[in-house]
Amino acid sequence: MTRVTVENVWKTYGKQTVLERINFETAPQSFISLVGPSGCGKSTFLRMLLGDEKPSQGRILVDGVPLQAEPSPDRGVVFQKYSVFPHLTALQNVMLGLELGQSPVLGRLFGKKRRTARDMSREMLKSVGLEAAESKYPAELSGGMQQRLAIAQALVKRPKLLLLDEPFGALDPGIRAEVHEILLALWRETGMTIFMVTHDLSEAFKLGTRVIAFDRRKTRPEELEAYGATITFDLPVMRKIVPPSGAVTSPAETAEAMPKVAVAG
Amino acid sequence: MRRLINQRPEILSRLLLAASPFFLAFLAYALASQARLAINPTDKLLPAWSTILDAINRMTFVPDLRSGDYLLLLDTMVSLQRLAIGVGLAMLAGFVIGVLQGLIPYVRATLANFTNVVSMIPALAILPILFITFGLGETAKIVLIFVGIVPFIIRDLAQRVEEIPHEQIIKAQTLGASTWQIIIRIVVPQMLPRLIDSVRLSLGPAWLYLIAAEAIAAESGLGYRIFLMRRYLSMDVILPYVAWITFLAFFLDFLLRGLRRVSFGWMYRGHM
């Protein structure tokens, strides 16, 4: 059961402060939705969790251990696109994680080990409903199938954390709902902690057990450089509710309005 | 009336259109040749088709009086061998260095500027240096081809590697890949088809360097023969040789394109 602790994290690029004073701790098996306007640093924050970026100040701990400063197999990731490898079939994409772990020199498995890895990968593909597409290349799959494949590929490593960067942003609403169900089922089954960056508030509330919003508190032009975004509201989702559309307009309103909605819902 | 940019030829007219410039070129030659020969039957500049066919026959099917070699075959084999070794080595070195330079920041910091500067050296300008250093034998010619095209292949490959989406490299690391594993499982398989493209583009310059080197110092080879025949104004040999070189270049390109399609099916599936 994984616990993520974020301690006073800041991120600056030169003089530009992007994020400031980010503090929170997650309960085990959380599904955390990160929301906020474009450019508020939520993707930057996800990249820090991933190890692709380093906090300028502060630190992030997973189960009390500071994060490694580069991506590692305990953290899976699914991006909006380019998450799967175009030169590998669906099955090969999923097997890759297993092959890399067990074969440091060739990165390929043979014989019995290969069959074991293949069976595990088929199992994984089946859990995202792609068993019929195992020999197809990503370019032959639809957007929703590619994202399901990316999830399967990440989960075969059994990561403690799954990081999703607007994973469903490019999908049709119908397909999106379908992938949501698959993701929720896998999350319940594995007990991992999920962080998901999304633009879509209803998606954030539908999936998350907790919704964290990032925004700038200071928005006057002369303040933009020196002050970054921080957590403007942090909200447990007790029940699965979808906020009424139009309820969220400005970030300031959001911070006050959302808890009421949650209570009322 | 639709705009010109929206009018497309049908298959038959497309074929006719594609054939017409070739036909016109041949026609122009035939007319000019006929006109010159009418004035002076011994004119050598624009030989008649029959003279050219005689020359082709002589070079291809009649052994040379002095050496007993079939000259066209000999020249072709010798030239292709030089080209293959030069291009092959450049391909190998360019691929290894290009991939490393594109992927590994320390290698890029060390080599990128150097490669850029070297690629600006006109290879033909250093041909004398190569002849002085390596003598007039095969080595200098092969090195010229190598030096002429390897900087381009390195730069092209490095560029392509940098164009691999960052997400893929991150994803590979979250799957536990080491730098080496990223190279052999992610980068190399995606770059092999790019290498073929890069080599296809390099073949033009490679032929240029080959013929230049053969023209200056050689005892056989397609370029050597053309420049030798120039002394005798033997247009009847030079013209078919040029056509033959063009055909070889075209054919090599065709082979490489076929290889790319056959070996890297993943690039085509789902896109066609």
Automatic annotation (TrEMBL), chain A:
Gene3D superfamilies: P-loop containing nucleotide triphosphate hydrolases. Residues 4-241 form the ABC transporter domain. The keyword Iron does not apply. Keywords: ATP-binding, Nucleotide-binding, Transport. InterPro entries: AAA+_ATPase, ABC_SmlMolc_Importer, ABC_transporter-like_ATP-bd, ABC_transporter-like_CS, P-loop_NTPase. The keyword Mitochondrion does not apply. One of its GO terms (molecular function) is ATP hydrolysis activity. Belongs to the ABC transporter superfamily. This is ATP-binding cassette domain-containing protein.
TrEMBL record, chain B:
CDD domains: TM_PBP2. Keywords: Cell membrane, Membrane, Transmembrane, Transmembrane helix, Transport. GO terms for biological process: transmembrane transport. It is a multi-pass membrane protein. It comes from the Bacteria. One of its GO terms (cellular component) is plasma membrane. Residues 76-260 form the ABC transmembrane type-1 domain. The chain crosses the membrane at residues 83-104, 111-134, 199-218, 238-259. InterPro entries: MetI-like, MetI-like_sf. Belongs to the binding-protein-dependent transport system permease family. This is ABC transporter permease subunit. It comes from Parvibaculum sedimenti.
